[in-house]
Amino acid sequence: MSTMRPDSRQAGFGLVAAMFVIIIIAAVIIAMSRLAVTQNSTNSLAIQQARAYQAAQAGLEWGISRAVNGQPCTSSFSLSGFSISVTCTPTTAMTVAEESQTVQFYELTATAEYGTTGGADYAYRRLTAVVER
Questions:
Q1: Cα Rg for the chain, rounded, in angstroms?
Q2: Does 2 reside within a domain?
Q3: What pLDDT tens digit does each residue of the chain (133 aa) get?
Q4: Transmembrane region positions (predicted)?
Q5: Rounded to an integer, what distance in angstroms lies between the CA atom of residue 82 and that of residue 37?
Q6: SS3 40
Q7: Cβ atoms within 10 Å of 48's Cβ, excluding its own
Q8: Taking the model in full, what pTM does it have?
Q9: What is the extent of the structural domain holding 96?
Q10: In this structure, is residue 8 part of a structural domain?
Q11: Is residue 6 part of a domain?
Q12: Residue 91, SS3?
């Protein structure tokens, strides 16, 4: 009687196929985790930039309110961790012919900054407006 023995050249093929599948699955998991980290960082930065815009908008509105009411409108202050700087530059007063009134224009610039330049969470926005009084 002769026993059938498997061909010795095919004995390790199942192990090679299993290792290949494991390596592919591990590569996909690593790629997906890196993508998730990148997506999270991008979302955090977008939120921080939106907060910077809102902080600069708040500074600009503060400056407009002060300029329209004849109060000093240049200042620096802090709001929710943002450093806000508002500058207000008046122009020369001029008379409007149709209404015989003198008007004054103010150019306002508000900047909002969070974190340190080059930092992972750094956010910066600058807004400008011109108003008359």
A1: 32
A2: no
A3: 555 555 555 567 788 889 999 999 999 999 999 998 888 888 888 999 999 999 999 999 999 999 999 899 999 999 989 999 999 999 877 767 667 788 888 999 999 999 988 888 899 999 999 998 8
A4: 12-32
A5: 25
A6: helix
A7: 19
A8: 0.70
A9: 13-132
A10: no
A11: no
A12: coil
Residue 76 CA, distance from chain mean position:
22
Q: What angle do CA 43, 49, 54 make, to 5 degrees?
A: 130
Closest CA to 76 of 100, 109, 122, 124: 109
Q: Compute the distance between CA of residue 46 and CA of residue 95 in angstroms, rounded to an integer.
A: 45
Q: How many domains does the structure of the chain reveal?
A: 1
Q: What angle do CA 103, 106, 109 make, to 5 degrees?
A: 165
Euclidean distance between the first and the last CA atom of the chain, given in angstroms as a whole number: 113
Please return the burial class of 55, using the count of CB atoms within 10 Å of its CB with bins 0-12, 13-18 and 19+.
Answer: buried
